[in-house]
Amino acid sequence: MEINEERFRPILVTKGRKTGKRHSVWLRAVKYNEKIYFSRHRPDGDWFQNAITNSEVIIQYNNVEFTGKASCVTDEKLNEKISQLKYPGEDRANEKRVAIEVTLDNNTK
User: Fold this and answer.
1) Which of 46, 68, 74, 79 is positioned for an S-S bond with 102, CB 3.0–4.6 A?
2) Element (H, E) at 47
């Protein structure tokens, strides 16, 4: 199974950067160029910092778990594109954001 939607609401599971415990959060995600993106205003959120510290993440969607590797998006044009895709037609699509990019592994659970 794969994720076909351009915008969707999965659960992102990260490993705590301090505790090592699993942390789950519902987020709005974007699929673009066969990668999954999560964004926020600032990089101070726990899920964001956890994903940067421990790049192995799980995306739970439609009762399927997808594993992958997260990395911080440093390309400002790509960050802008992700915001436009995440919030089409909304004013907040033009706000500056930070994002992580998840490259999915080939295996699902």
Assistant:
1) 68
2) helix 46-53
